[in-house]
Amino acid sequence: MAKKDHNNRDARPIVWVIGFLVVAMIVYFAILGWRGISLISTGTVAGIGIGIGVIILPFIGAWLIYATLRAGIEHQKLARIMVEEGRELDVTSLPRRASGRIERDAADDLFAQVKQEWEADPNDWHNTYRIARAYDYAGDRSRARQMMKRAVAQYNGQEA
User: Fold this and answer.
1) Between vectors from CA 73 to CA 103 and to CA 81, what angle results, nearest 5°?
2) pLDDT digit string (tens) for 131-143?
3) I want to staple 51 with a disulfide (CB 3.0 to 4.6 A). Which of 40, 91, 130, 147 is the partner?
């Protein structure tokens, strides 16, 4: 059985799914907006209050979609730069579970190594990116997101 090459996957199916979901959400937001207007047009205090609340929901949803897509694009940009510079974490030789995830001990060892690099220069976005990836491999998604957000800010010159 051949190993999957996770670095050379075709991204088009993912892009199509994301596009479909964004279009579906836009349709949903339009329906919500129309329903909000209908509630406001009832003229009752409750209808107007609920209608305004329902109209606000699509704006919140649109902002969430924008923020999520923007973050994803930024993360992909940093990943592409790291690959081009040869600084992406090489996890091809690490042992994996049947699910494809890296075994816990190996992920912890990788994290310890990357943490030392990051502690030596935490202001370099490359190191922050690498520790974000190491957190992800170790299964700590919240810290991975936090550090990736920091790496993007450092790359954009917004954080030292």
Assistant:
1) 70
2) 999 999 888 899 9
3) 40
